[in-house]
Amino acid sequence: MGRNGNGKKEQWGTIHPKLLDPTGGQMDEAPVLPGYEGVPFRGPIPNIKESDPFHRQPQLGAKVHIEILDLSKDEHLERYQKISQMVANGFAKMSQERIEYDPAKKNWRVFVRWLEMFAYDPSKGHNHGRTR
What we know:
alpha+beta; 2 helices; 15% helix
């Protein structure tokens, strides 16, 4: 058991990496553009033919990010702008966004859950399970 932000023990256990990334598609490889189906490709793009069986066709995936941003901080505002630009470009989807005014800071705070969209080659058998 780990500790939460209040110093208390967490009530939940660990989640096996295979349950978070069963195919290894979320590997930490640089995205390749133009990608596939409008989203960046992870890893080297294979030689794909339309006649290839389904298990050889690229698959689409998403990696979940959850962030709380304090827009009074320049680096948080820049991060929020980058996330918003990825959404505008079609490379990410906003799953949840809640914006609240912080009267103490006289600025805005944002809770954002967003999905980083990507395509990957399922036949590569990656077993990374890492998250950023």
